[in-house]
């Protein structure tokens, strides 16, 4: 695996070293020891699959409030997505900055997302499947979100958004004079 830290500390792209032969290829996507060598101590509590019928489908920008924050390891196993993560750690030098990556079945790239990040994606083709490994149990009452079109975040989505849930369309933009969602992301709250 090729484990590369992104511009947001603690978030990594994970590329597969493919062993190619006439049948196709084989490669590792997760290894406890290799992760640990990069300081990543990831144990899987749940795995989820997201199927998306249409190109232009947006899911996000989601996070779980501490103490139920989630670590996610995301990969696109069919089709392609424009994947975006946002640093919500108030103490971080890259607070509220985002990073994007194209994840596709062709490139087999994965994204490792630490706790206290928001995550979302836009499908780039029809029939796209996204596979997650998640480090913590799901706490439905701890879910929160940010608006994908928030001018403060300034995410340059590469396609028009044509399919989105009502919940995701209606997340409030960040309030610059104090936002309760962001206030709840600090280290004390996550302790
Ligand atoms: C996220 C989640 C949802 N659900 C249920 C709640 C609901 O009835 C149904 C669909 O949930 P949602 O609309 O939240 O699904 P979705 O919008 O696909 O939510 C996902 O979006 C991406 C961007 C992420 O990063 C994921 O962690 C997750 O938040 O599935 C679970 O049972 N377990 C889970 O872990």
From TrEMBL:
It catalyses: dTDP-4-dehydro-6-deoxy-alpha-D-glucose = dTDP-4-dehydro-beta-L-rhamnose. This is dTDP-4-dehydrorhamnose 3,5-epimerase. GO terms for biological process: dTDP-rhamnose biosynthetic process; polysaccharide biosynthetic process. Catalyzes the epimerization of the C3' and C5'positions of dTDP-6-deoxy-D-xylo-4-hexulose, forming dTDP-6-deoxy-L-lyxo-4-hexulose. InterPro entries: RmlC-like, RmlC-like_jellyroll, RmlC_Cupin_sf. It is an enzyme of class 5 (isomerase). It comes from Rhodopseudomonas faecalis. Its EC number is 5.1.3.13. The record marks 138 as: Participates in a stacking interaction with the thymidine ring of dTDP-4-oxo-6-deoxyglucose. One of its GO terms (molecular function) is dTDP-4-dehydrorhamnose 3,5-epimerase activity. One of its GO terms (cellular component) is cytosol. It comes from the Bacteria. The active site is at 62 (proton acceptor), 132 (proton donor). SUPFAM superfamilies: RmlC-like cupins.
